[in-house]
Amino acid sequence: MTVVGTKPHPIFLAGRWVTSPDVLTIVNPADAAEPAGATYTATPEQYEEAVQAAVAAFEVTRRLPAYERGRILREISAGIQARREELGRLIALEAGKPIRDALVEVDRAVLTFRLGAEEAERMTGELIPLDLLPSSKDRVGITRRFPIGPIAAISPFNFPLNLAAHKLSPAIAAGNPIVLKPPSKDPLVMLAVAEIIEAAGVPAGMVSILPMTRELGDRMVADERFKLLTFTGSPSVGWRMKDRAGKKKVVLELGGNAAVVIDKDADLADALERVIFGAFYQSGQSCIGVQRIIIHEAIYDTFKAMLVKRTKGLVAGNPHDRETFIGPMIDVKEAQRLDNWIEEAVEGGATLLTGGKREGAMLEATLLEGVDRSATLYREEAFGPVAILSRFGRFEEALDEVNDSKFGLQAGIFTRDLFQMFDAWDRLDVGGVVINDVPSYRVDNMPYGGVKDSGLGREGIRFAMED
């Protein structure tokens, strides 16, 4: 069992638990004076051992039968479920995520590994008729998917368990070894999950979970022995990785400044709760968090008042308190960055409707209106508890405003008009359109990914396995 606050947790190298001279102390976002725990940063020699082990393991994993891959993934899923409370508390401790959100993340990881088991057992090919010309009479073609080879994976801090699971589960399901670099800010939960992976009996070398320096991570990105790089994180980092990745396939799940459209016929009470959740759950630190709220002019004042009142009532504070909705951002630096963006927007003519105060890593849930479209807060990804209100007259104007972004991950549309639903689906330049809910909606079996600066490829277990 993982014990936080005693000695550093060892790291998982190809089935072995090892230490290194480089101790990595994990900062507690809610209390910087009290560390969340410690582990180790892998050395270059340990990285090399992990890669060599992954290459050697591929000769075993590529032939691993479906029933065995399914068994491993089911046991990992069950192991996470059995340690639900412990893993939830660990996420809350090292990521500052409110405990209720942390427990939901654990539940999602249980599903993510279970879905991997199911997909491992129903990977099918295709029978293709080839008799389209007289010269091919009586001929058919058969397709079959083969594992790609060792995978390099880098996961982010905002969902330290489930977004890592979205790397590990499809890799194991498809029979690929994987070396995972967990986030340096909160790696402890995945090292705890490594204990569960070990107990499930994965082949030696199939999984390594190694915190690394940025320099060692850069080495992994360029390493030709990996046949696929999967990265979830910021767009600026992700696209630079693609440039360095060489010939390997690349899957990028990057950022966004997601918009939601509230049409005049929307159920405002229902939309209110969903928008509040989408904008402020886990302190807005989600790439599909609601950042832009585009409201029909006929209901703008009414819905604005509802949003402001509800936002002011959100409980902020200790992430371990089950009543807390707003916890700290991941660190003071990130909170300062977003605080500066808010100040810049206000200086540029925006009106602060509520929030806007910061203390350390804690930033109040904040709403603004009248933000200039050239402002950093409008153009870039806020990745924090801030949302912008604007109004529209015609539905086409709202769609144009959604598309006025270099990002395109997901968008939400609240409307009862079937024709407008399909119009949004046709016209929006995003990876997914969510009807009568916020863009923050995601279930772990759905195809998930973006266009433009928001990424390349798709996750969601079956869709990731196809990559």
Number of DSSP strands?
Answer: 23
Q: Which class do the helix and strand fractions yield?
A: alpha/beta
Task: Please tell me the overall pLDDT.
Answer: 96
Count of helical stretches:
15
CA radius of gyration: 23 Å
Helix % is 25-40%
Could you characterize the architecture of this molecule?
This protein is of the alpha/beta class and 467 residues long. Helices cover 39% and strands 18% of the residues. The chain is built from 15 helices and 23 strands. The strands form seven sheets. It has a seven-stranded mixed beta sheet, sandwiched between helices. Helix 9 packs across helix 10. The N terminus is likely disordered.
What's the gist of this structure?
The protein has helices spanning 44-61, 66-82, 84-95, 99-120, 162-174, 188-199, 214-222, 235-244, 268-280, 300-312, 332-347, 376-379, 395-403, 418-427, 461-466, and strands spanning 11-13, 16-18, 23-26, 37-40, 126-129, 140-143, 151-154, 178-181, 207-209, 228-232, 249-253, 259-262, 292-296, 351-354, 358-359, 362-363, 366-369, 386-392, 407-408, 410-414, 432-435, 451-452, 455-456.
